[in-house]
């Protein structure tokens, strides 16, 4: 306490009676008696008349307008007015000698004293301000001000009391003032009373007083809770008469446009008695007026955006987001400028993922990232009405899909699954709300991985990893190394979209995407062909190996990535069961696309047959057959158009397999249900073989295999055109545990090799290297591939690149058993193709050295040494392999003489050395017998036939 006299006034307050003070309150006396007793105590303590008190207050508060007008304040007034003046004098004296906002121990004020100050201000507002409010607030209402308003309000008293309690209204530590709506209502009404007076003749306030009064109103806006202020201001607006309404309405709008105004309005309306839907309508209508100034609308937009972000982590406020979203949507419809603000704000939320800071390893905290995703989900996906237009997020598509790919592998964790679901809903909502033209452009951009410049992509150095320190969080970090150059297929946006559609209920969207991808399929391979060809022509072969590798991978990705993505996406979507029924219901659309493809294929013609992708045409013809055989009955016009396209295609292609497909399709379309007996018999035989091969009994499978072999030998058109179907059935039967079935499947593959050898061998090698398949199945396929090569015999030299690269790739596998199988199969292939392994020899030695030095699986080491032994046994003429013999001999000699190596490894090495010694002796003896001492004399200048240089093996020629 800074003055000794202030204690007197605290004791004076202790002696007063207040209704809310349980210590001194007396329920037996009336309100009039209470005021009279308090007045008696105050007058006895101060020993001053009301006029003298008013004069002291005017001088103390420096109210220049009331100088020498104290008689107007305290003359001919009632008991309540006198009580208000004395109370103001009391608390004003306390205020001047007390620091209410200080945290020092000597300045601390008890909670009881704070409440008493609040009771005093409440009494002043009730007895001094309330009866003297401007008559404009009276109206026909009997509540609040109606019964207590006087006909001739004492405006001088109002001005003095307002000046006196203005400083108390801004003290945040006074509890009742901040929580009491009635005090705030009376104070605001008193301020407007003084403002209204400026319009009256004879009692005009000067301009400075008006400004001062409005300043108090603005100061109160920043001091009390904005919801309280706004609710009371709206109540006054509802009570005021029409001629004064414009003044309150203007201030109401100014407060709405100022920071915090929207939230204040929203919560003030939510506390009203109106229904929830009507509250939303009122708020939306009030904040989204097109007539508002540009800056005012921008302020409301920014307020709503801040409210949306703050509401995500606030369970009490998140239920009000719908009103904010509808308001924001209306404001965006009003002005392009408002849309731009929202777009910039959305980009700002993901900015840390786009522009990385050099010195910061953590890009975003997981809580911040999940809140951002939740915010987007709430703003765009929670409702079809209470949401923002999804077109805002169209440029975010590549960013959202990339984020989904990053966290999808962690979705088994509960806290990640929610974020993953939110991202998937966002992506599907955006695409589902697009028109066909817009969706077509988006899917094309995805397939080609070329988005417009303004679209957003996650920075290539951003990674999402597990947080070792907190198992309930992930880390969004940045790395210095670049993205792996060979990951372009695994990061396909089209494939991720197909997976999303397959899991979702958006079947109609899945159909649209399928049709668009199907349209792109034949053309995407040539989309960048000119660019790739130009790049290949400009390649500099003198650059370093890493640059060459990056360049090659870039070219592969540009040339083939789009087609690979589309094939994978179509494969994923076709497994979606609802899509199949939708395709049959919309078969006419699919047929029209197929007809367009056939026209394109026909226009390419035989002269540019290298531009015609055979696999694409085969897929188209297979689809046509499925539609003709299993689809709904088509009109004669459709069949006639398909037949015409097929005839044109047959006339322009010379490929035997395509011609077989076309011939069979022509027969099916021309004959329809009344097919010729020959076709019926062939179809029955094919279906019988297919049924037997699909059976689970081994003897039936073998019978079906034999039927297929017979059909292939008889060159049945239906069978030859369905090689891919037979191949899929044979791969499934190959996994049978019965060796008899397995060996017959090998015979079937060997017979199919002569129909389309490249596809068969390539399919087997892909299945052999498929890491997602089971180990036992892969080992069986590897053995089958080797046996197929034995069935083909020496002619398999044409496929040496596919076969040797397949097994050498398997020799690098981290799986021990698979590596052992690959080395064993590679040894047999080297024995068969020993005459043509020169360009692979160095790589073979590197693989064997790597296995022998760093490998830990002994059977794989033995198989690696066996590769050299089998290679030596397959050599016919040592002269042709002379540059390979010395490295082989040194390695085998070392392994055979080393005591540290395995016994069987030494045995394999010894066998190899014996084979080499035997072949060397045979070669030397053959050379000695054929050596001649005859001298050859050549006379130059005479034309003679050149001597032919034949190799020892007739199949050496490549």
Short description:
Belongs to the Tango6 family. With 958 residues, this protein is mainly alpha-helical.
Task: Outline the fold blueprint.
Elements: H1 6-14, H2 31-46, H3 50-61, H4 70-74, H5 79-96, H6 111-129, H7 155-169, H8 175-179, H9 181-197, H10 207-223, H11 226-239, H12 242-257, H13 261-270, H14 276-287, H15 294-311, H16 321-334, H17 336-354, E1 362-364, H18 366-380, H19 397-408, H20 414-432, H21 436-448, E2 462-466, E3 474-478, H22 493-503, H23 507-520, H24 529-537, H25 545-574, H26 577-585, H27 587-604, H28 614-630, H29 636-652, H30 656-671, H31 677-694, H32 698-713, H33 717-720, H34 723-733, H35 739-768, H36 775-792, H37 800-810, H38 816-832, H39 841-854, H40 858-873, H41 882-897, H42 903-930
Antiparallel strand pairs: 1-3, 2-3
Helix pairs in contact: 1-5, 2-5, 3-5, 5-6, 5-7, 6-7, 6-9, 7-9, 9-10, 9-11, 11-12, 11-13, 12-13, 13-14, 14-16, 15-16, 15-17, 16-17, 18-20, 19-20, 21-23, 22-25, 23-25, 23-26, 27-28, 27-29, 28-30, 29-30, 31-32, 32-35, 34-35, 35-36, 36-38, 37-38, 38-40, 39-40, 40-42, 41-42
């Amino acid at each position: 306490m800074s003055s000794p006299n202030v204690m007197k006034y605290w004791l004076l307050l202790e002696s007063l009676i207040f209704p809310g003070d349980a210590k001194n309150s007396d329920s037996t006396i009336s309100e009039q008696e209470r005021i009279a007793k308090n007045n008696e105590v105050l007058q006895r303590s101060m020993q001053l008349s009301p006029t003298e008190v008013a004069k002291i207050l005017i001088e103390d508060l420096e109210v220049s307008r009331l100088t020498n007008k104290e008689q107007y304040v305290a003359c001919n007034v009632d008991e309540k007015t006198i009580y208000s003046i004395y109370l103001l004098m009391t608390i004003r004296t306390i205020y001047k000698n007390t620091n209410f906002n200080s945290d020092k121990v000597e300045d601390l004020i008890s909670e009881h004293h704070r409440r008493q100050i609040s009771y005093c201000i409440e009494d002043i507002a009730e007895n001094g301000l309330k009866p003297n409010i401007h008559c404009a607030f009276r109206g026909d209402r009997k509540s609040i001000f109606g019964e207590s308003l006087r006909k001739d309000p004492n405006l001088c008293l109002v001005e003095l009391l307002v000046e006196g309690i203005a400083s108390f209204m801004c003290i945040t530590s006074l509890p009742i003032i901040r929580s009491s709506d009635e005090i705030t209502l009376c104070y605001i009404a008193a301020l407007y009373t003084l403002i209204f007076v400026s319009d009256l003749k004879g009692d005009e306030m000067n301009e400075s007083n008006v400004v001062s009064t409005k300043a108090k109103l603005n100061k109160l806006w920043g001091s009390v809770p904005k919801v309280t202020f706004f609710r009371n201001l709206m109540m006054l607006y509802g009570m005021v008469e029409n001629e004064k309404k414009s003044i309150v309405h203007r201030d109401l709008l100014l407060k709405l446009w100022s920071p915090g105004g929207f939230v204040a309005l929203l919560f003030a309306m939510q506390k009203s008695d109106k229904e929830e839907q009507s509250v939303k309508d009122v708020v939306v209508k009030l904040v989204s007026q097109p007539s508002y100034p540009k800056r005012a609308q921008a302020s409301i937009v920014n307020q709503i955006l801040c409210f949306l972000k703050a509401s995500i982590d606030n369970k009490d406020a998140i239920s009000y987001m719908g009103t904010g979203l509808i308001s924001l949507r209306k404001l965006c419809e009003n002005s392009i400028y408002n849309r731009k603000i929202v777009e910039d704000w959305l980009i700002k939320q993901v900015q840390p993922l786009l522009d990385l800071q050099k010195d910061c390893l953590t890009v975003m905290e997981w809580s911040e990232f999940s809140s951002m995703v939740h915010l987007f989900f709430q703003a765009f996906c929670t409702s079809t009405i209470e949401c923002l237009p999804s077109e805002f997020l169209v440029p975010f598509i590549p960013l959202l899909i990339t984020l989904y790919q990053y966290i999808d592998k962690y979705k088994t964790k509960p806290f990640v699954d929610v974020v993953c679901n939110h991202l998937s809903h966002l992506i599907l909502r955006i695409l589902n709300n697009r028109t066909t033209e817009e969706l077509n452009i988006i899917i094309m951009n995805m397939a080609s991985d070329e988005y417009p410049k303004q679209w957003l992509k996650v920075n290539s150095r951003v990674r999402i990893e597990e947080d070792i320190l907190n198992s309930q969080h992930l880390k969004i970090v940045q790395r210095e190394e670049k993205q792996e150059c060979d990951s372009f297929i695994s990061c396909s946006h089209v494939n991720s979209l197909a997976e999303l559609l397959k899991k979702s209920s958006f079947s109609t969207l899945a159909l649209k995407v399928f049709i668009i991808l199907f349209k792109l399929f034949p053309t995407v391979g040539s989309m960048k062909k000119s660019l790739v060809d130009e790049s290949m022509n400009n390649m500099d072969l003198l650059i370093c190996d890493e640059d060459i590798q990056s360049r090659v991978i870039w070219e592969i990705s540009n040339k083939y990535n789009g087609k690979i993505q589309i094939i994978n996406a179509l494969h994923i979507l076709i497994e979606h069961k609802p899509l199949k029924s939708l395709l049959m219901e919309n078969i006419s659309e699919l047929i029209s696309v197929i007809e367009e493809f056939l026209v394109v294929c026909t226009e390419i013609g035989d002269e540019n047959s290298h531009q015609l992708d055979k696999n694409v045409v085969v897929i188209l013809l297979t689809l046509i057959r499925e539609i003709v055989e299993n689809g709904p009955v088509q009109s004669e016009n459709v069949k006639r158009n398909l037949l015409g396209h097929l005839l044109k295609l047959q006339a322009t292609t010379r490929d035997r397999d395509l011609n077989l497909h076309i011939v069979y399709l022509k027969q099916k379309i021309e004959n329809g249900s009344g097919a010729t007996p020959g076709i019926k018999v062939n179809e029955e035989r094919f279906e019988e073989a297919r049924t037997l091969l699909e059976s689970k009994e081994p003897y039936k499978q073998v019978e079906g295999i034999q039927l297929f072999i017979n059909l292939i030998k008889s060159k049945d058109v239906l069978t030859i055109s369905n090689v891919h179907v037979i191949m899929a059935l044979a791969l499934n039967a190959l996994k049978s545990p019965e060796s008899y079935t397995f060996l017959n499947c090998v015979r079937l593959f060997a017979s199919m090799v002569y129909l389309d050898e490249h596809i068969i061998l390539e399919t087997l090698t892909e299945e052999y290297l498929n890491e997602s398949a089971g180990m036992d199945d892969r080992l069986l396929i590897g053995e089958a591939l080797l046996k197929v090569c034995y069935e083909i015999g020496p002619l398999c030299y044409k496929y040496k690149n596919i076969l040797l690269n397949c097994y050498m790739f398997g020799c690098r596998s981290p799986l021990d058993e698979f590596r052992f199988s690959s080395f064993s199969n590679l040894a047999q292939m080297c024995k068969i193709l020993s005459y043509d392994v020169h360009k692979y020899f160095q790589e073979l030695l590197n693989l064997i050295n790597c296995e022998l030095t760093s490998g830990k699986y002994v059977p794989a080491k033995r198989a690696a040494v066996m590769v050299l032994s089998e290679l030596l046994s397959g050599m016919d003429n040592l002269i042709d392999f002379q540059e390979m013999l010395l490295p082989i001999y040194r390695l085998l000699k070392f392994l055979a003489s080393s005591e540290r190596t395995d016994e069987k490894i030494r045995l394999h090495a010894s066998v190899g050395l014996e084979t080499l010694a035997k072949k060397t002796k045979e070669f030397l003896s053959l050379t000695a017998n054929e050596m001649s001492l005859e001298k050859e004399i050549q006379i130059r200048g005479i034309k003679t036939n050149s001597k032919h240089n034949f190799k020892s093996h007739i199949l050496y020629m490549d």
